[in-house]
Please model this.
Amino acid sequence: MLGGGFRRRTGPEERGLRVRARLRAGQRSGSRFGAGADAGTPGGAQRAAHHRQRWWRQRGRRGHAAHPQPALAQFPAGHVPLIKRLSRWLRPRAPTIPDEPWQAACEALPWAASLDRQRRERLRTLAARFLHEKTITPLGDLELGDHERILLAALCCLPLLEFGEGGLRGWSQLLVYPDAFRVRRSHVDAAGVLHEWDDELAGEAWDHGPLILSWADVCADLAEPDAGFCVAVHEMAHKLDVLDGELDGTPPLPSGWYRQWARDFQRAYDAFCAEVDAGREMAIDPYAAEAPEEFFAVCTEYHFSAPEVLEEAMPEVAAHLARFYGPSPMRAG
Model:
């Protein structure tokens, strides 16, 4: 699993105080942004080992000659244009969303309605790709029509406006519950005692697995687009975070920017944790103090839904996110 999902308190008046699954004592200690990096290189030893496992290894045993490889048949040069033409013919057409349903989705999606024309078309292309590549599965008695599916695709693709469709790699399914869903958690503390509890979640993301959302919470986010919450954006931030092989609050970035990001996020995170631990009232959801990856995901929510709050509380973090995601649609509007 990537990150802890939203956990809500009971009662409609508590939605603005959504609390997520809490880390147990001692789990935050030593948490670092860019924890997987070594020598300033994103991904570090673990990602290097991962890539090493993908390299082809020579199979010849010591002392034995490798088997000779048969010569490969080659097409005459005149066949190359034919191959190119066949490849263009076989390549699937780029998916599209027709004008009328896309316009209806934009009217229902406050963030899309606030985008300029160029970025809205970019979102349309990304959402079409999402619908083409991902299976959206409603669970329980939930039914999702074309309009709802386009809404979900567009909402999930908001964080990809600058990153591009590469942010869709590594998973294939969006599961949608009618409302918050319950999962069983367990944790062994430092004394070896097993703790088990149930969480009621509004969203969850799994490494190389599905993204899971509560439709009721998606609708609540649509109704209050400037409240600082957006569960779909939060979970997509986890998907972006893990693309470089590490869930550490640092998505794939050029090396120079990566170092700046890790430094500035770490400083802001440490200061934020100190304020939360001191019991002070926070403008940003205190859940951001749970771990670097949750800090990144929660700040992503504020970038898209309450950018002024984020800019005032953490100007350096807000600047990085504006560079990574592009200007907030809520600010642009």
In short: The first strand starts at residue 6 and ends at 7. The chain has one domain: 94-332.
